[in-house]
Amino acid sequence: MSDKINADKAPKPVGLYPHARRVGNLLFLSGVGPRTAGSDANDSGVPGLKLDHNGNFLEFDFEAQCRSVFDNVRAVLEASGSSWNNLVDVTVFLVNMKRDFATYNRVYAEYFKEAQPCRTTVEINSLPTPIAIELKCIATID
Fold first, then answer.
1. CB 75 within 8 A of CB 7
2. DSSP per-residue codes, 44-112
3. What are phi and psi of 136, to 5 degrees?
4. Which tens digit of pLDDT belongs to each residue from 46-57?
5. Structural domain span for residue 95
6. Nearest CA among 31, 59, 56 for reference residue 47
7. Mean pLDDT of the chain
8. Which residues are paired to 49 by β-bridges?
9. How many domains does the chain have?
10. Average of pLDDT values for 75-92?
11. Are 97 and 137 in contact (CB under 8 A)?
12. What is the CATH number of the domain that holds 130?
């Protein structure tokens, strides 16, 4: 048996899935991106990103996306009865490893100084919205 969880302070999912599911004392987060809460698939709502009418970058701030995705993960954890320190595994998807990994790694070290979950970072071709990073996480619930 599992419980579906949706967080009001996180961006709406871009499909039919919950932000997280609780199974026993484990919490499985769906992919979480940097869009701001209240934005949806039709409104990019991505911090540090402005696109022209053709979808080309006018502004791009990857560090702003990193900070936003971490804040969104925290919002889902807290809405689920968990916390940042309960993260045990983080899978990171980057659309451009060469360009973004150093920034990601630096910001990650700020946010995860105390809590140090296992981590895997992979490069992918694209994500379903114009974001450059997404996290998939597993945490415990006390």
1. yes
2. ---TTEEE-TTS-EEEE-HHHHHHHHHHHHHHHHHHTT--GGGEEEEEEEES-HHHHHHHHHHHHHHHT
3. -120, 125
4. 998 988 888 888
5. 2-140
6. 59
7. 92
8. 60
9. 1
10. 96
11. no
12. 3.30.1330.40
